[in-house]
Design brief:
The chain contains 24 helices and 23 strands. It is an alpha/beta fold. Strands 16-17-18-20-22-23 form a 6-stranded mixed sheet, with helices on both faces. Helix 1 packs across helix 6. The two termini are about 45 Å apart.
């Protein structure tokens, strides 16, 4: 039977330490909240018929008398095909937390209007994972249960806010991502969530995305309405940016980090954009003092780090394999001896794990970026932290390598000058779930890494992006498809419309006037489709667009895009030569 998949280590949404304490209190029988659950909250859910099944009441009451509680019983279930807002309570942790909306319930024939007395399984799971990741609850892989730790009991029974914050502080020092963020801030500078996010996690994996700050600032300052600006403020961040913002919020709560607005100026091409970003953070004196404790630069002993193996990969393909490989590396470099790259590769291979020095270097960088203190002395690596909770699985479920995974590993070995975070472009091009991320990181590669003039556009009635060099401009259309992209009639017509709008430049045809973002001296234009793979008669489709518009174009898959980028940055290919390749109405490949 395959083991249950849990996602410990990376927390995006929970922020209330009061709610965190309620979850941990479920295991502390002499706590006030534990008593309230038995005497008030559970009877209310039963009497208002808000439990998924009548039998759950007895199951919850019984669980509250145990030292170990099933994770499934704690988390409960989702709403299935129904509405989340109308789903009944199915988990003990759901029952511990109060919802935000007021609702009317009938109990013993009387109507009462109160806040919803339980939450959904997604919210409950977030607080459970937070409690486990901080070490307040211990998770048992063998039977998928949680139990109380000593620090968890101390957290629940803390008498004062000062005592509670002290316990939280020690927990954060045992949580590697918090240490990573404190380390970034320890130079005394003021960092935005984007500046922190790009340095957090395994940046070469799609589960750790950070929106380039200059692209965000440019989009914000050139937004056409306050509504568009509001969307950019509230809903335009990568997963690592969100991790950074949430963890900084935790540290701010205990006085280790201070939050204040930061004015930033970003220059793209010949244009500068200035705005104020509210989510910006700096370390306090108390935070710096405690960070030194975390890395052993004080009289106090270094605090062991809690690392569940789930922290070692997020949404990456073959995540279980990555976790096993990285856990094996940590165990190997955590002893007395320092280890060289060839030794680490040989050790992995002796354990049946395929690896190269390039792969190991990327893994070691990511392990440092999650907050582990790994030093490199003359090409030999050593883990200075003591790690708890990390279990290297003896067997794992290995999925068949996807086409994206095969391509990504093929490209990895060839990128010597391009940051390996751009390997994510391959995953984004195959996923098809969030085309906007694919668009943004394509422009990020072309402008921030290769220094073309350009910008991300996207949105209604605009191409996904544009770039230019010397007097040549290119219209970009990103297409993320898991099985490859065919330029059908609809897609060709869309590109024809963009090219014609650019050729004619009439506001009555398109009031947003996106073409004005091209520099005024551009005299030659091309277009390019960028996707995972291309299917069908690409030459005929591209030639058809040329016949309709008089403009030549190309198709370019992400593997070859990265090869071209490597050649340009490595000095093997000129910018002009690359731009010329987009002028022949064919799929472009790098030889």
């Amino acid at each position: 039977m395959p083991r249950v998949q849990r996602t410990f280590g990376w927390i995006q949404n929970p922020s209330s330490t009061d709610n965190l304490k309620k979850i941990v209190s479920l295991f502390v029988k002499d706590s006030d909240f534990h008593t309230s659950m038995l005497q008030n909250r559970l009877p209310l859910l039963r009497d208002a018929h808000l439990l998924e099944t009548a039998e759950l009441y007895d199951s919850f009451v019984n669980a509250l008398s145990q030292t170990k509680i099933s994770y499934v019983l704690l988390k409960g279930y989702g709403c299935g095909s129904g509405s989340r807002s109308n789903a009944k309570c199915s988990g003990l942790a759901q029952a511990a937390l109060t919802g935000q909306q007021f609702k009317t319930y009938v109990i013993d024939g009387k109507s009462i209007r109160i806040k919803k007395p339980y939450t959904d399984d997604w919210t409950a799971d977030g607080f459970l994972r937070w409690a486990v990741s901080l070490g307040f609850l211990d998770y048992n892989y063998d039977d998928d249960t949680c139990s109380l730790s000593e620090s968890g009991r101390a957290f629940v029974l803390a008498k004062t806010k000062t005592e509670e914050n002290s316990i939280l502080g020690n927990a954060y020092l045992a949580y590697p991502p918090a240490c990573r963020i404190l380390g970034i801030l320890s130079d005394g500078n003021h960092y935005t969530k984007f500046e922190i996010g790009k340095l957090l996690g395994f940046t070469d994996e799609a589960g750790f995305t950070s929106i380039p700050q200059n692209i965000w600032v440019q989009a914000y300052e050139t937004a056409s309405s306050q509504n568009e600006k509001s969307k950019l403020r509230s809903n335009f961040e990568g997963s690592s940016d969100k991790y950074a913002r949430m963890i900084c919020g935790w540290l701010e709560h205990i006085g280790w980090v201070a939050k204040s607005p930061k004015q930033v100026t970003e220059t793209i091409g010949s244009n500068s954009y200035t705005t104020t970003i509210g989510a910006a953070f700096s370390i306090t004196a108390e935070g710096l003092k405690n960070y030194k404790r975390a890395i052993g630069k004080s009289s106090s002993a270094r605090i062991p780090k809690i690392v569940y193996r789930e922290m070692l990969a997020s949404k990456a393909p073959q995540a279980e394999l990555l976790r096993k490989r990285r856990a094996t590396i940590l165990k190997y470099i955590g002893g007395v001896q320092k280890r060289s790259l060839p030794q680490i590769v040989e050790h992995l291979q002796s354990h049946g794990l395929e690896a190269t020095e390039t792969i190991v270097k990327d893994d070691l960088k990511g392990l440092k970026y999650i907050g582990l203190n790994i030093v490199n002395q003359y090409g030999e690596y050593h883990l200075l932290d003591t790690i708890t909770k990390l279990i290297v699985p003896t067997t794992i479920e290995v999925d068949e390598d996807s086409q994206a995974s095969i391509i990504r590993e093929r490209v990895r070995e060839k990128l010597q000058h391009i940051d390996h975070k751009y390997l994510n472009l391959i995953d984004y091009s195959f996923e098809g779930k969030d085309n906007r991320i694919f668009e943004i990181f394509t422009i990020d590669l072309l402008t921030n890494e290769l220094h073309f003039i350009g910008r991300h556009l996207g949105g209604s009635r605009k191409p996904d992006g544009i770039i230019s060099h010397n007097q040549r401009g290119v219209i970009i259309d990103n297409k993320a498809y898991s099985k490859g992209f065919t330029i059908d009639r609809h897609m060709a017509d869309q590109m024809i419309r963009y090219v014609q709008e650019n050729n004619e430049r009439r506001p009555e045809r398109n009031p947003n006037k996106w073409w004005e973002y091209f520099p005024s001296d551009i005299v030659t234009f091309n277009f390019v489709f960028i996707s995972s793979l291309f299917r069908g008669d690409i030459h005929s489709a591209l030639s058809g667009i040329k016949e309709s518009t008089g403009t030549n174009g190309a198709a370019l898959n992400t593997e070859n895009l990265l090869y071209f980028a490597e050649a340009i940055k490595g000095g093997l290919l000129s910018y002009d030569a690359f731009m010329e390749k987009l002028n022949h109405n064919t799929e472009v490949t790098y030889s």
